[in-house]
Amino acid sequence: MLQPAGLRFLYPSLFYIIIRYLLSVVKSKRTPVAAATLFCNTLLILFPLAGRSQSPAPVLANRVTDSWRMEKMIQGNKSTVADQSMGDFMLIIHADKTVEQGMSPDGLIKGTWTIDEQSRLLTIKDNETEMVYKMKIITVSADELVLQDQSVTAGVTIYYHAKR
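Above: the chain sequence. Below: its structure as tokens.
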């Protein structure tokens, strides 16, 4: 029988643990039913997730879901603080993977979003123009979201503040 390389060493030690445990149960004065129950409960405590694979919780996806107002933009060494017109630019990221972006009084453009937790890459697809924006998440907290546009070679970093 072929075994995966990572499990080759697990089987002998697990087998050894089970045999030692069974011998200790047999030596004790417990009834077979009580011993079997104790044995099964012990295995469930020691190996609760055996056979199950779990994906990590979507931490970034939960953190970016909010309404964000643009605060400033930095391109290269040039910083642009959001004036009244830029300050009206909103990025609303919904938990249902939809997004709205644009200027508040002019109307918001709808789209969808995905996130790659490992590379910290937020991808927004604009439904009207079919444009896809890939942005690296630099920082995300309850009050601040910092994104770096990956499509521009000069590296535009956009700072957002949570709108509450």
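The chain has four helices and nine strands.
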